[in-house]
Amino acid sequence: MFSVLPYDSHLEARWDRFVMNESVNGTFLQTRRFLNYHPQGRFKDASFMLESSGIIVAAFPGNLTDAGEWISHQGSTFGGPVIAKHYYTAERIASIVEFAENYLKGICKSVRMRPTSSLFALDSTALLEYTLEHRGYTRQTELSAFCTLDPNKDPFETCKDSCRSVFRKSIPHNLEYREVTDAELPEFYKHLCISKAKFNVKPVHTLDELLDLKHNRIADEVKFRALWKGGTFVAGMMMFDFKQTNVRHAQYIAPNVEIRDFQPSTAIYISVMREAAKDGIKKFSWGISTEDCGEYLNLPLFKFKESFGAKASLNLIYSKDF
After folding, report:
1. What is the CATH number of the domain that holds 213?
2. What average pLDDT is seen over the chain?
3. What share of the chain is helix, strand, coil (3-state, %, to 5)?
4. pTM score, whole prediction
5. Residues paired with residue 84 on neighbouring β-strands, in sequence order
6. Residues near 133 by Cβ (< 8 Å), separated by ≥ 6?
């Protein structure tokens, strides 16, 4: 029924057209223009597409690890499978997953899939989730959060009283909220690294890679914003726009940990929400509050997001050994 097209650079335009225009759950995170920002050699790419009568019906961005695990995809928050709109039925999904699994058995020992969250998909992801679970995949859940926005309502009004009280402490400081320039991006990155170091991790992207994303690969989907007090950096945020579903996502948050007079993180959260509401953004995604594939919940972080009116959503991970 299907044929396998292992990914090759000559398929890049076809791949990206399918993901962005022809699929039900593809995002720019699964396009080659995004994934290819990773230097050659960082991952052993093992992406492939399934074709039926010359028509692409699914894309599986993924890479192989040294341990023989196929992961979709270590270079992106979401991988696959990405399914064609016209193939998104219960019967066809089952056929796609079965065929892809038989192919994967020949190239790896185990599989770990990270499909697009329902928050960023054009249609319900229930069919895909059901199919994977009932083919024996183990499901893990990461707890994420999002706020619903109204262009005619100040997001500040939906925040809890405690959050609004904290934010008001920043008002007398006359903070300036604006786009981060290229010359200011190193300052943003410095505070991002300091913030990440508290948890013994580093940013996924280098400073040069952020500049590449900003000006080349996803210039229309990425935003950098910051708050300043005079010439002092207060807090910054890197955001992604998922235009198909009109969702804005906080990818990186970089507060100045030396500021004590008010809470920089609360100030930048309110500022980006207000801009998003004015832009007509439907939902603002705050990302996960869990670690180790959802095993550990950072409860204070999730409660902080809830104080802005955020509700829970899930990122799913499906694993199977062969």
Report:
1. 3.40.630.30
2. 95
3. 35, 30, 35
4. 0.94
5. 23
6. 139, 318
